[in-house]
Amino acid sequence: SAIHYNQMNDKAWVGLAMVHFDFGDEELGVANLKRALDIDPKNRTAIQLAVQKLNWTKHGVYLIEIVSQFL
Fold it and tell me: Residues 11-20: pLDDT tens digits?
């Protein structure tokens, strides 16, 4: 996987987050989004996905905290 070769690949972390969300694993999805934003705070896809998931996950408050750090 791309992350295996380069753990600083923010796009790969976003992709992994999408997969985890699709399979219902919200905790890993949120953690992967946070990792992507730690690497690149301006990753628009990660920010958009986090905002999109605010109402669909029990981690909405945590996602708001994450996103607000990077805006």
Answer: 999 999 999 9
